[in-house]
Amino acid sequence: MNWANRITVLRILLVPLFVAMLHYFRVSEPAVAETYRFLAIVIFVIGVITDALDGFIARNYNQKSRLGIILDPIADKLLLMSAVIILTFPSMAGTSMNFHFPYWYAVLVITRDALIIAGSLLMWMVVGDVNVKPSMLGKVTTFLQMTAVIWLLFIFPRPLIPVYLATLFTVVSGIGYLLEGAKQAVSAEEDAGKRK
After folding, report:
1. DSSP collapsed to 3 states, 41-83
2. 76: closest CA among 100, 112, 103?
3. 33: closest CA among 23, 19, 42?
4. Counting CB atoms within 10 angstroms of each CB, which of 37, 72, 105, 133 has the fewest?
5. Residue 193, pLDDT score
6. Which residue from 5, 12, 167, 32 is spatially nearest to 76, judged by alpha carbons?
7. What HEC string does the chain produce?
8. How buried is 57 (Cβ within 10 angstroms: 0-12 exposed, 13-18 middle, 19+ buried)?
9. How high is the pLDDT of residue 102?
10. How many Å apart are CA 179 and CA 129, to the nearest integer?
């Protein structure tokens, strides 16, 4: 296993720790909760940095691999999904965080990723191959979703600004991935017709 993949695996292993810190932040008394919030921020920022780092190493040190192509988006989704889901529910202990993600935002983010995964699996089962190419829109969407999480964890003012920006790009990039999937399906069907 190369260094890029090791860093990706480390990011996956950070997810349960991040979830635990967020959980204890939400259920602890305010005096203790801030420590857990700080630890959750540190873990999430490490996750964001290692996301950039493993991509940099893979591209610049010839460490791109099939395993990395599969693990990297899984690591991203696990970290983001866990953050979005937990931060959608109000705090139970009256901590300093008096804002949470709107329910519709969590549903939108989860639905987009579920559709992309389901579409990829369908393509793989029907066509036998799927060419998953991360688009620039997809990268911007991931960045904005991560920004929304960090904004919320830091308790910055006007938290709906990053949420609305992330929402816009989540919708647009989701449509883009669906169109790309449909294009690949049509192309595969045409190729199959030519071989007959």
Report:
1. HHHHHHHHHHHHHHHHHHHHCCCCCHHHHHHHHHHHHHHHHHH
2. 112
3. 23
4. 133
5. 64
6. 12
7. CCHHHHHHHHHHHHHHHHHHHHHHHHHCCHHHHHHHHHHHHHHHHHHHHHHHHHHHHHHHCCCCCHHHHHHHHHHHHHHHHHHHHHCCCCCCCCCCCCCCCCHHHHHHHHHHHHHHHHHHHHHHHHHCCCCCCCCHHHHHHHHHHHHHHHHHHCCCCCCHHHHHHHHHHHHHHHHHHHHHHHHHHHHHHHHHHHHC
8. buried
9. 93
10. 17
**Closest CA relative to residue 163, chosen from 123, 106, 110, 114:** 106
This prediction's pTM: 0.88
129, 187 in Cβ contact below 8 A? no
Cβ pair 63, 2 in contact under 8 A? yes
CB burial of residue 138 (10 Å; 0-12, 13-18, 19+):
buried
Q: Which parts of the chain register pLDDT below 50?
A: none
Gyration radius of the chain's alpha carbons:
19
Tokens 């700080």 belong to residue: 38
- Predicted pLDDT at 5: 92
The torsion region of residue 60 among left (phi > 0), alpha (psi -120 to 50) and beta comes to alpha
Residue where the block lists tokens 């199959």: 192
Q: Which residue has the tokens 């950070």?
A: 14
